Structures are given as structure tokens and as C-alpha cells.
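Run log, item B.
One chain of 252 residues. Sequence copied directly from the ordering sheet:
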Amino acid sequence: MLNGKKIVVVMPAYNAEKTLKRTFDEIPKDIVDDILLVDDKSCDGTVDLARSLGIKVFVHDKNLGYGGNQKTCYSQALKTGADVVVMLHPDYQYPPKLITAMSALITSGIFDVVLGSRILGNKAIKGGMPIYKYIANRALTLLENNMIGQKLSEYHTGYRAFSRKVLLSLPLLENSDDFVFDNQMLLQAFYFGYQVGEITCPASYTRESSSINFSRSVIYGFGVLEAAWKYMLKKRGFGKSRIFDSLGDKLS
């Protein structure tokens, strides 16, 4: 626990056998109460390895997609009584040692959502982020900041921590099951008035790091802009969007 709050780490996994143990070993277990892994129908030994490490494992009968995986992650974490939930990819792209700092910013009451930003500190390219991904990240972030009136350094990191209140109150079940889920969730947090903070997060890109291909990246980019456009319209009292509807389907 940290500041009297239960900390749960969730790992959305797909073919993570090669990097899972290294990621798991660096999780700060002095403050983390539970570690959950949701396997999205992997084709390798991810599930067996996770169980051998003592991780609580949940297995999808079919591949539900990155967003669908996260929905299960957060639902199961809430059932454990988590006060803070940290999403950590098991591909060792993000340093697990930052879990303590990210969790502390939430348990202290300073932020409701904390992002590990690869852009702050100019570590992205040094860590191996492909140049085209870096340029796309910066361009989309600039556009999105201007569209919704925020000042984040990046919207596309997969390293995130959430308070229990955020996870219960956002209509997460209305979101996509694909990669744009991340962006929709962040926009929802802003829309419903939650405080979002960032910390510097050096990332490591290796052959085993999970990454979407170019065509999926393009689809993701258009999805991001669509979500930001819906945010703008909804804020101005125009249009309807279930992802920004307080009566939309939520986790329980």
C-alpha cells in the first residue's frame, strides 16, 4: 500500500513471454498489493509464465483487442478493491520503477490520472522510438492540444495510472476495443473534469517491444482526431457522443 491506498498493477498482454519476467522483476512490490495480467489469446507461453511467477491471470477466449483487454484489466482490478490502478505493458518498453512515483501523485490527491510521458526529457528518440512515430506523435499531440484546449506533452503513452473514482465514473464500456481506446479514455478524463498529470518516462524500444504497424497507426491517427472532434462538439453543446455521456455504460 501507499499512503494507506491499495495499489494494483494491470498488464494487458499479447505474446509477451520474452519480456514478461524482466518487467515483473522490476515492479516495486514493496508498495504494489496485486499484479494482474489479462491475456488476449496469446500464441506463446505468456499465460504459463505469468502463472509460474505468481501473477493473477485472466485469459480471453478470443482476441478482444487492446481496448477490450484494458476493459477487463480495470474491471478485475476494481474487484480486488484497488484504490489506484497502474497499467504497465509487459513488453518492458516502460520502466516499472516509476510505478511508485505515479501512484504517489494519485494517493496524495494531487492528480486523478498520471501519464508516463516519453516526450518530456527528450528521451523518446534516444530510447529507440522510430522517427516516423515520433513525428506523428508530436503532430497529433499538437493538433489535439489545440482542439481540446490542453497542454499535454503526449496523448499516446501506454503507461498510465488511475484513481478508483476515475475508473468507476467514466463510461469506459462505450469506448472502442481497438487502440484508440487509450485516447478516448484520456479525453473522457478531461471532459469530466479530472486532473491529469505527467512525469518523465524514458522508454526502451527493442525487437520485442509491442508496436502497431503503419496502416494501423494511420487508422489510430484518424480515430484520435475523430474523438477530439466529438469532444469539441460536445463541449460546445452540439452533437451526441456516447463516450462523453455521463449515463453511458461504466465498469462495476
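Observations after the first pass:
- The first strand starts at residue 7 and ends at 13.
- The radius of gyration is 17 Å.
Flagged for discussion on Thursday.
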